[in-house]
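Look over both lines:
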Amino acid sequence: MNILCLGGSYTGRYVASKFSKEHQVSFLSRNAEELRAKGYTAAGPEGLQELSKKGIGVILDTVPAVHSKGGLEHPYRQELEKVLEWNPGSAFIHVSSTSVYPMEFTAEDEKDLPTMDEGSPAKPDTERGAERLLLEQHVARLVPDLRVLRCGGIYGPGRCMAARFKYGDFRRAESGNRMISRIHVHDLARLILAVGAPNHDDGLRVVNAVDERSSTNRETFGFLGESLGIRVPGDWREARPQGRRVVSLYAKGLLDGKFVYPTYREGFAQCLAEE
């Protein structure tokens, strides 16, 4: 399967690095030279037609929006319209965020925090979430058959809170006792390939890309402190639980019933092993 990644995101580079035996991955990026220097197949907007000659099966969009005088705008809009014209049968996957669901909840006990799934209304209560939802809507106007993956916190080798803590970077520990939903980049890549597969069209248009278990900072930081033999600073021990769980009704089924990294524990262990 030929996959065209818009931009040069961490997720796109992981797909290109780890699944290159099964799929041909190329990048449309304004930083194409930098990507080529790292061994990736990449071209700028001027090379789009050449990339499209291969026949594109999946367009993977991980590009954030930009603000212009006309409002929110996709930075590759003109190129995107050409790609869709030249490859009308391509699956288009837009990587969004679980921040489109409301998240400003507080409870005395974490079990009283709400749970969001794909049937929950997207009613963001943060500026970041509002922008992500506007971008989803913007792309939906450009792409008739849009498939959206709403991702929890994406992590993996080279981008892992456990490794930051190990080396004394505790900036993430300043966020209180929030409930966080995550997904390891390897399982996210598997979801992308499953949703974009030529034989896959079950009508699903929104999938929450999250693993099997959200966790509070109190649990996660406590686990990391014990595992690494360090003291993690912050008020997460005493603070009330905040946020919400995000679950997926469909992700596990799309992954043939199994996450490689079902929770942060397995995922963080893999990151630390690679470090």
